[in-house]
Structures are given as structure tokens and as C-alpha cells.
Amino acid sequence: MGLxxxxxxxxxxxxxxxxxxVSSTGASKNDITKVLTSALPSLLSGAGKQASGxxxxxxxxxxxxxxxxxxxxxxxxxxxxxxxxxxxxxxxHLLGGSKDSTAxxxxxxxxxxxxxxxxxxxxAAPLLMSLIGKKTNEAKKDDKTST
Length: 147
Fold this sequence. Notes:
mainly alpha
């Protein structure tokens, strides 16, 4: 996955995204930053596994395609319409069997209760999928124009 992880990370940890997650979860920006900073490597690793997995690649590509259509031009609007249930499913897909242990580890390291960690991840996951989907689409367009 040749994605610009720095731009994805900076968008997720940017003030607009943080404010949207604050509005959706009631957690502080500091707590959200701690959770996302701890969780992003695992979430991105999970995305890579989903993208390259024999049994998961096509459904993951479809999910990215779907989430890429979500407008992220106004993150406050994006988070007002965020589907936390869908976000929880995304986290489950990306982290698989390590979902609970990852959330517990982040909770221990950050001092934030596991339910809040899970909610932050569920709110942030749709944005992560949208950003990855948009970057994937850009990469596909670049590949087509350079060949």
C-alpha cells in the first residue's frame, strides 16, 4: 500500500478532526491524541493485512471504495454524521482478534478507560477508512497516468 501515511496521520490528529471526535465522544483532545497515536500503527497494520489478505482483499477494496465517497472537506459535518456502529465494525475488521487486547493496552498506557478508548476508535475509524480510500483512488489514478 503506497499511501502517504503522514498526511493520513496529520489529518486524523489535526485540530478539525480532534474537535469532531471531541464532539462525538466527549473525550478531551489530549486523550484522543493519546489513543489515536497509540492505535494508528495497529489500525494501519490491520488495513495492510486486510488489503493483502487472500480472503479479505476484495471486500476491503469495496469498503475503501464506499468510504472514499464520504466527503471529508468539512470534518465537523463528517463527524456529525459519523456512524459509530459502523466504526466499531471497522475497528473489528482492522484489529481482528486483537481488538479487545489492543484497546486494553491503549487504555492502560494512556490511563483512559477502555470504553472511551473503544468509542474514540469507533468514531475515528470511518475517517481513517475514508482517507485511505481517497489515497488509494489517487494512487490508482497516478498509476494509470504514468503508464
